[in-house]
Amino acid sequence: MATDASDMMLVMAARELKDGEVVFVGIGLPNRVCNLARALHAPNLVLIYESGAVGAVPTRVPPSIGDPALVTGSLMVCSMSDIFQLFLQGGKIQVGFLGGAQVDRFGNINTTVVGDYGRPKVRLPGSGGACEIAIHAHRILVTTPLGRRTFPERVDFITSPGHRMHGKPRSFFRHPGAGPVKVITDKGILEPDAETGELILTTVYPGVTVDEVKAGVSWPLAVREHLIVAPAPTSREKEALTRVQAE
Amino acid sequence: MTKTQPARNVVATMSEAISRFVHDDDTVVIEGFTHLICFAAGHEIIRQKKRNLTVARLTPDLVYDQMIAAGCVRKVIFSWAGNPGVGSLHAFRRAVEKGDLEIEEYSHFGMVGRFSAGAAGLPFWPMRNYGGSDLPAVNPNIRTVTCPFTNEVLAAVPALRPDVTIVHAQRADAAGNTQIWGLYGVQKEAAFASRRVVVVVEELVDADVIRSDPNRTLIPGQIVDAVVVEPFGAHPSYVQGYYDRDNFFYQQWDEISRDPKRLDGYLDEYVYGVRDRRQYMAKIPGLEKRLTAQPKICAGVDYGY
Predict the structure, then answer these.
(1) CATH fold of B14-123+159-291, please?
(2) CB contact residues (below 8 A), chain B span 61-120, against chain A
(3) pTM, full prediction
(4) In what order do the strands lie in the sheet with B124-127?
(5) Which of A136, A159, A238, B90 is the least buried, fewest Cβ under 10 Å from its Cβ?
(6) ipTM of the complex in this document
(7) Peptide bond into B162 cis (omega under 30)
(8) What does the alpha-carbon distance between residue B5 and residue B3 come to, in Å, rounded to a whole number?
């Protein structure tokens, strides 16, 4: 089976998760990423959903983050106050997954509005827990396919802070978490420059050219001197992927 | 002493409860995060043509989309306004894009903080949040406060004190002692923050049942003004142990709500066209069979001493 571009996002994101880590999971792709990682190298991943399910082991792909299957067989069910105060603000979440309609040069994420807030072109759902996850999770993995409209130079609205917000670095706000350490796209991985916080291309997937990635963002994308070509999915990864996708 | 009669009986019909405890211009909360969203109450509010409401919820969900479409709502206080797992809330989105609806927007943590402050009788709730986000720029109620001990600058959100909060639950006794299991979101904080509380349950049980498992009681009868018994009252949301979420309807709503005429047709048939939940259920044959939960009984614990 050939691995298509969105499958590559899954495989690359799953490789970022370590066994035993506590992961704040959303619906859709992050959920599949966690299932893939659990099937491969991280069977002891602890999945936490903002709805209050801790250590969830869903036996069906949850269509929403409040699905009853997240409760049955989980380790703990708690209030959303406990989720945000004790787990997230208390520093107990290692990895947070975020995605968005727009991700900009500094890793800021917009899930609120396209156009002007007062007179929106497109009204999006809003933050949910994303703003505080971006601030508190020890590290953030962003999974979003490339596209010039999805990756503008500046987002129309900063819902979730990245590495530089209106000229101010993350350290100015004393955010406990490291922010988006990797932006995993369908063609390569972007990472923040240690000094400027600007996202630069650090990894391309096999068979992808640098120009293809550059064409998918709206700013002049810098490329790390030692560009990594990610190892192609192994047969074990492909086999687990087929199983997870079939669920 | 092993048995006490409930001190009071606050059982009411949905129609009575909404008519007595929800008024025009009120701030109304129908809480429940995906789980236990009381659509039956939302539909009765629509039928009784309540107007000019400020409605607050973390996730407005289909229930507020329907109330917005029906013209009950002036303002929405929220943190995530989408159709979970499907896409947009179209009535909400149309109203916001046209400028017809006032919004006050937070993140989930911000809304949790607002209810927590309201419940605890505090004027505001502090949190480490919002630094670098544009949310404070569009919501003047997201402010900062300086810690008197460390001088750290924290975010602060104001207490939310709803006029009425409606909570759906598995069971309660006639005095309103309410037990919930599965996801319970911010229902406890929202209920304690509220001036009036209406509980809607799948089953009315004896006080003995409540007393046999007191750790399961989320809302004490002391703060409850009415208990309404309305089986399947959360559909298309779900009740753990009773019925599954109607994910198919959540997808259908995307099509229905895209077209204002179709949406009106839905309200005519399933809200205005029925008197109560029983008639609503009768309109959707096979629903009960399709969604009734498979049992998964827990072992229980020993409360002895």
Answers:
(1) Glutaconate Coenzyme A-transferase (3.40.1080)
(2) 78-82, 84-85, 88-89, 92-93, 96-97, 99, 105-109, 112, 116
(3) 0.96
(4) B124-127, B153-158, B143-146
(5) A238
(6) 0.96
(7) no
(8) 7
